[in-house]
Amino acid sequence: MDEVLLRADIALEQVHHGDGSATWSVNDRALRRGHGIRAGLEDTTVLPDGRKAPDNATLV
Questions:
Q1: Which residues contact 43 (CB under 8 A, 6 or more apart)?
Q2: CA 3, chain centre distance (Å)
Q3: Segment 7-56, tens digit of pLDDT
Q4: Where are the alpha helices (DSSP H) in the chain?
Q5: Integer Cα distance of 38 and 4 in angstroms
Q6: pLDDT at position 32, please?
Q7: Are the CB atoms for 16 and 27 separated by under 8 Å?
Q8: Residue (of 36, 1, 37, 42) closest to 19 by Cα position
Q9: Residue 5 pLDDT
Q10: Structure confidence at residue 21 (pLDDT)
Q11: What is the H or E stretch that residue 16 is in?
């Protein structure tokens, strides 16, 4: 998707978010590329180390 936006000269800020087990990989990649991220219990219920997240604040 990054390539599609670049080729189309879209310069808007990007905010990425993954779903389920992809959440942390998507967020890591987005941060490395300087994009915004979001994560909440609606996206994943586990922390990067696999522990259950008690609330949204812990995910952030």
A1: 17, 18, 19, 20, 23, 59
A2: 17
A3: 999 888 889 889 988 999 999 999 999 999 988 999 999 999 999 999 99
A4: 2-7, 23-32, 56-59
A5: 21
A6: 94
A7: yes
A8: 42
A9: 86
A10: 82
A11: strand 15-16
Does the predicted model carry a pTM greater than 0.70?
Answer: yes
Task: Tell me the C-alpha distance between 44 and 29, whole Å.
Answer: 17
Residue 12 pLDDT:
87
Q: How far apart are CA 45 and CA 35, in angstroms?
A: 22
* Cα distances (Å, whole numbers) of residue 52 to 6, 19, 23, 35: 36, 15, 14, 26
List the structure tokens of 27.
């967020």
**Distance between CA 44 and CA 31 in Å, rounded?**
18
CA-angle at 25, arms to 12 and 10, nearest 5°: 15
